[in-house]
Specification:
Elements: H1 3-6, H2 9-12, E1 28-29, E2 31-34, E3 41-47, E4 52-58, E5 62-68, H3 69-74, E6 84-85, E7 92-93
Antiparallel strand pairs: 1-7, 2-3, 2-6, 3-4, 4-5
Length: about 100
């Protein structure tokens, strides 16, 4: 998989720059990445335009933090499958993804 498949320019342009949503009480999650053969999921809120995202990482624990595009491109799931972007994900407030 290449960068344009995982994060095309049209999607990249929808993501606010790092720090832009910092003061928002309930920022919008705009992109979802996932393993098709494993349980980890990454939800992007902001992007530095090059490699660094800020968002929700749902793995062993669910936490807000930073993750890198290069790491998404390099990693594989348990059966060797590449990470994918959820083509059917609609932007949603962060609060909808957090446990109540």
């Amino acid at each position: 998989m290449n960068v344009q498949d995982l994060l095309p320019k049209s999607v990249r342009n929808e993501l606010p720059p790092l720090g832009e949503t910092e003061e928002e009480a309930d920022p919008i999650v705009r992109v979802k990445f996932f393993y098709p053969d494993f349980s980890w999921t990454w939800y992007a809120i902001e992007f530095d335009g090059d490699d660094l995202f800020f968002g929700l990482v749902d793995g062993f624990e669910r936490e807000l933090g930073y993750f890198r595009l290069c790491e998404l491109l390099a990693n594989r799931g348990k059966m060797g499958m590449e990470i994918e972007r959820d083509l059917f994900f609609s932007p949603t407030p962060l609060s909808k993804l957090l446990p109540r």
